[in-house]
Write a structure and sequence with these properties.
Keywords: Membrane, Transmembrane, Transmembrane helix
Membrane topology: Multi-pass membrane protein
Strand content: under 5%
Oligomer: single chain
Subcellular location: Membrane
Distance between the termini: 31 Å
Pfam family, one: Oxidored_q2
Organism: Kangiella spongicola
Order of helices and strands: HH
Structural class: mainly alpha
Number of strands: 0
Number of domains: 1
Helix content: over 70%
Radius of gyration: 13 Å
Length: 38
């Protein structure tokens, strides 16, 4: 149960970081992230 809660928190914080990075660096950074994920 604790592990599940921890992964949910980690996922939400990662998403928040992604949104923050997108707002800061713009769409070019987002394209680079999409390329890295492939």
């Amino acid at each position: 149960m604790i592990l599940l809660t921890f992964s949910a928190c980690e996922a939400s914080s990662g998403l928040a970081l992604l949104v923050a990075a997108t707002r800061t660096h713009g769409s070019d950074q987002l394209k680079n992230l999409n390329l890295l994920q492939c």
